Every structure is written in structure tokens, then in C-alpha cells.
Amino acid sequence: MAGVPVAVGDSVVIDVVGMTHEGQGVGRVEGYTLFVSGAVPGDRVQAEVQSIGKSFGRARLAALVAASPDRIAAPCEIYEACGGCQLQHWGYAAQLRWKREHVAGVLARIGKLPVAPLEEAAGEAGGPGTADAAQAGVREIAPDAGRAPVVVLPVIGMDEPWRYRNKAQVPMAAGIGGHGLIGGFFEQGSHQVVDMEACLIQQEQNEETVRAVKRIARSLGYSAYDRATGRGLLRHVVVRHAEATGQRMVVLITNGRDMPHADELCGLIRQDIPGVASICQNINTSATSQVFGEETRVLWGDEVIYDEIGGITFAISARSFFQVNPTQTERLYRTAVDYAGLTGEETVIDAYCGIGTITLFLARHARRVYGVEIIPEAIEDARRNALLNHINNAEFAVGPAEVVMPQWQAEGVAPDVIVVDPPRKGCDPALLATMLELRPARIVYVSCDPATLARDLRVLEDGGYRTVEVQPVDMFPHTVHVECVVGICRVDT
Ligand SMILES: C[S@@+](CC[C@H](N)C(=O)[O-])C[C@H]1O[C@@H](n2cnc3c(N)ncnc32)[C@H](O)[C@@H]1O
């Protein structure tokens, strides 16, 4: 390709100077950018060019010439094959530093926001990897913050960043030669299932439950669903572990309503899995890669399990969203409540509220809170959770937030604060438009995708709001994902 200094198949020695949002090392050859999978900043590598484009190419790490001081041996045996983690070969402190730089870079590039130099932000908080960062970093979000640069605080990391996930979602497939049943993870960049016995970011209870369910399913002769033919029974096994109560839930996602040997299945699960409180079947006959179908039925036990965060008890049903890292969730929610700046007099809307987790945290500090969420079972859980915790100033609605919010507006609901916690794709444009019409004094944005966050912040900034402070929280150590809580205030008073 004209103007590109390398060709496919070339071998080049490069210094790795950055990391992409997908976890590939970034290096340059005569100013031309190469993404090198498996490389980390600080490495000098011999890279074999695999593809080239006009502005960047991709390369394979052929040999490590000199290792970065932050490079470590990934502790997980299946790390190379598995698509679940991307950063296990990089020291945790370096991961946290990169996550903050990544967030700051995306806010500047996509959101066109002025971001305070990292040294200034570092001075605001306790430093990466410390829980103190939450306390030290949260400052008053006031309208007179004006157009000061956005402060992106150091990431709140975990003291022990392993075994944190309370939910495992395991795709099932036929074993070698199309026989038997395996379940594990999708190979990087494919839908090929690799059998898995252990995963270091899962809580041990989940590992144990998945192993037992696979063993039982094999003993009952269950077949695996085959995406190509649309035949076979078991699509996914989803298990949850509630850390505070020890309860476990097993959900078998099947390609049809028939659940052969259901009584025997439940008997064996109850016998082999301690703490199991709920066994459900979810039916998904769609040809999509979506995990859950619309219909869930209880095979044995309760339809929910119970967990606790920050002294509030939550009922969680099979399809409901519940944050996967309980230790970090409490830090995330406390930051969101701090940024809301409540005095007890405010009306608050929590959009994309799930089972009412943030809503109920907010309710303890507000006059009235409204939560909206699209999954009906999640709202059933949210209402149950309000009752369970004797919280009577919370009201919930089912539906798309972008539809329900204008209805509330028409009914005269006038929020002082709006909290949003959308899925990866960010807020619906109609929702952002309604938020700008409602003109709350503060907005708190909880985001799991810095790029869509930055896009939405630009809309809010153009509509009279200022992004004041961003607190990244490491909900997903050893992966490229990073969660952010953002304090935003209205400036066009
Ligand atoms: C990232 S989760 C946050 C849930 C909750 N705040 C929590 O921390 O547990 C996003 C939630 O938005 C819901 N959701 C997705 N699209 C939605 C929409 N258009 N309107 C309302 N809720 C939606 C999902 O079902 C999910 O529960």
C-alpha cells in the first residue's frame, strides 16, 4: 500500500508505547501505527505484520526483545485461549494507571472536553488501587465550577483483584466429534466454545456450581444447542452467587419449553450444590446470540435469591441486571450518591435502574425517587426491594426510559437530580433531550463505556451542563473494561 512503510509478512522490531481499548499494544514504524496483540507498553517486541490499512496495521507478537517492567506471567492457565480477560499479563497497578489515562483520553477526543492534567487529578485522591480514593476524591459539584477542566480521578482499584465475579454465564456446546457436552467460554474473537473448569476472576462458588451442573447435565444425557442447525437442548448455564447470604441460583437456558428429567435434575442440583435456593429454566428459541429469552419459569425453589449491598437487601431474579463485583459496587454507588449532593429535600429520577439498586441508595437521602427500567421482572424486584427495606419514598415504572421520562415530565415530575446508568450503548438521544428539558441542577452519569459516555457528555455540555469530576471504578480487573461515575452540574441557571 502506497505510503505505508511495512508490508504483510514483514518482521519489525518496535517499542510499545500505548494500549488500545481492546488491549493490544501500540507501536510505530516510521510514524505508522501497528497494533500488536499480546504486547504491553514498555515492551520492545519483534512483531510480524498481519494486515495493513491506510492509518494503522495489525501485527502478531513474534518475540519479546525486552520485557516491560510491568509485564507479568498471567496466572490463569487458559488465559491465552480465553476471550474473557485481556490484561492478565500486565501488572495491576499499570492496568489502573492505563484505565484512567484511557478514560481521560476518550473524554478529550470524543467528548471534546478539557481534561485536567493527570498529575493534578492524582493530587485530588488517594492514588490508584486504594479505596481511599473514593473519599479523598469526591468534592462538591457546584454550579460555579464553571468551565474548569474536568478532573478524572485515579481509578478505585481492588485490594485483592481476583475471584470477584458473582455471576457466570457459560455457553454450552457439543464435545469432540459432536458428542457429549462441554461448557466454558468463547475463544477470542469466535463462537467456538472451550471447556473450562476454573476461572480466576469467578468466585469459587460459581466455579463449583458450573462444574456440578455440567456433570449433572451429562449424566442426564442433555444435548448442547447447535447454532448452525438450531437443534439441541442446552444453550447456556447462568449461575449467580449472593456473597452476603451465600445463596446460589442456577438458570438453564434451553432451546424450547421441554425440560427432560426436570425432577431428577433439581434433585441432583440440590444434593450436589450447597446453598442453592433457586433453579430456573429460561426459554430461548431465537436464532440470535442473545443469552436470555423472554420466558423464565421456576423449576425448584424461589424465583429470586437475596444479596446485600451497603446494608440494603436486594432480591435478584434470573434476568435482572445486578452488578457482578460486589466489593466495588458499594464504592460505585456511594460515589454516585455523593455526586448527587442530596440534602433530603430533592426529587430524583434514576433511569436504567435495574432492580432499584442505586434508586434505593438514593432514597435514603432524598424526598422522593423515581426509577425506570425496561425489564419487567427487574421492576418487580425493585418494588419488592423497596418493601423489603421499608423504603416508601420510591416509585418504579416499567418501560424504555426515553418513553417513560417524557410521561413523568407531562405529569409534572420536576427532578432536582437525574441519575443515569445505561447499558454499553449509552443514553437514547430522546432521553438526553428530555433531560435537557427537565433541567435538573445535577446529573450523575454511571457508565460502563467511556466512548458512549463521552458522546453523551458532549450533548449535555452543549445543552448547558458542565462535566465536573469523573471517578473511574475498576469493576472488572484484568479486562479492558472500566466503569465511571460522573458528576455533572447545570451552569445556565
Ligand atoms: C448497566 S445496567 C444498570 C442497572 C442498575 N443501575 C444497577 O446498577 O444495577 C443498565 C440497565 O438498563 C436497562 N435498560 C436497557 N435499555 C433500557 C431502556 N431503553 N430503558 C430503560 N432501561 C433500559 C437494562 O435492562 C439494565 O437493567
TrEMBL record:
Its EC number is 2.1.1.190. The active site is at C448. GO terms for molecular function: 4 iron, 4 sulfur cluster binding; rRNA (uridine-C5-)-methyltransferase activity. It comes from the Bacteria. S-adenosyl-L-methionine binds at Q323, Y352, E373, D421. The keyword Metal-binding applies. The keyword S-adenosyl-L-methionine applies. GO terms for biological process: rRNA base methylation. SUPFAM superfamilies: Nucleic acid-binding proteins, S-adenosyl-L-methionine-dependent methyltransferases. CDD domains: AdoMet_MTases. Residues 5-63 form the TRAM domain. Keywords: 4Fe-4S, Iron, Iron-sulfur, Metal-binding, Methyltransferase, S-adenosyl-L-methionine, Transferase. Belongs to the class I-like SAM-binding methyltransferase superfamily. RNA M5U methyltransferase family. This is 23S rRNA (Uracil(1939)-C(5))-methyltransferase RlmD. It comes from Cohnella rhizosphaerae.
